[in-house]
Amino acid sequence: MTSSPQEPAANTISCEVMQILSSKWAFLIITFLDERPLRFRQLQRKAAIITTQSLTNSLRHLEQIGVVKRKVIPTVPITVEYSLTEKGKDFHLSVKEMAKWEVKWGKGRPVYPG
Description:
The chain has one domain: Winged helix-like DNA-binding domain superfamily/Winged helix DNA-binding domain (Arc Repressor Mutant, subunit A, Orthogonal Bundle), CATH 1.10.10. It is 54% helix and 12% strand. The protein is built from five helices and three strands; from the N terminus they run ααβααββα. The protein has helices at 10-21, 26-35, 40-46, 52-64, 86-105; strands at residues 38-39, 68-73, 79-84. Strands 1-3-2 form a three-stranded antiparallel beta sheet. 18% of the residues are buried. The mean pLDDT is 85.
């Protein structure tokens, strides 16, 4: 089965999605960054259940795959701000739909804010 240029093969779509889902905290981070860009410490406070190392690793991973943008602000000390790329904003729409599904079919409470 071949796919047209407008319709990527199912395995390609799965690989792209799995790259995002492979980060344990991706949904939570994406949801927080959808609100507005955040500096590392701000994000760390909002996502208090995530260890510093896990947050760092997740942000690096999401940046690598083009979901999160890392901006270094030349201040003393250096400030780093994270925001969603267009790809990340678009993926967040899926996160919202999954949260709706969880409310309907899960235990009645959203797993992620938003």
